[in-house]
Amino acid sequence: MGAVVGLALVTAGCGAGHSATSPVHPPTGARTSSIAITNFMFLPATVTVVPGATITVVNRDDVTHTVTSSTGGFDSGDIAPGATVSFTAPDRAGTYSYICSIHQYMTGTIVVT
After folding, report:
1. How far is residue 15's CA from residue 22's CA, in Å, rounded to a whole number?
2. Which pLDDT score is estimated for 1?
3. Which residue ranges form the domains of the chain, and what is each CATH number?
4. pLDDT value of residue 2
5. pTM of the model as a whole
6. pLDDT tens-digit profile of 50-97?
7. 94: nearest Cα among 78, 76, 74, 77
8. Vertex 33, ends 75 and 96: CA angle to 5°?
9. Mean pLDDT, residues 16-44
């Protein structure tokens, strides 16, 4: 009988310890992110960030590009060849498409979580 009570106490202790050490899940998006423009493409094509994150863009092409929201939420302005600029992601969760306003076939997406 004493062994049964002891086993019950050990099992109860293990259960209590498990809940105290449950992992905490961090936010899905990042506080900073980078986009490279290479060969007339945005790399990566999709970035996931938290609201208000800083997004840095480096232009590795030999021509000027932009990162311009399709709905007017953000615009990097002109990014000269070899230049790096940063802008702030939208403050609201959502999926935001963007283009290069000079070469409108270049597209990408920012996901704010």
Report:
1. 11
2. 55
3. 30-112 (2.60.40.420)
4. 53
5. 0.73
6. 999 999 999 999 999 999 999 988 999 999 999 999 999 999 999 999
7. 74
8. 45
9. 73
30-38 and 46-59 beta bridge pairing:
parallel
As a three-state string, the secondary structure of the chain is: CHHHHHHHHHHHHHHHHHHHCCCCCCCCCEEEEEEEEECCEEECCEEEEEEEEEEEEEECCCCCECCEECCCCCECCCECCCCEEEEECCCCCEEEEEECCCCCCCEEEEEEC
Cα 23 to chain centroid distance, Å, stands at 21
Torsion of CA 78, 80, 82, 87, to 10 degrees: -20
Q: Rounded to an integer, what distance in angstroms lies between the CA atom of residue 27 and that of residue 63?
A: 36
* Residue 7 clears pLDDT 50, i.e. is over it: no
Interatomic CA distance for residues 98 and 68, integer angstroms: 5
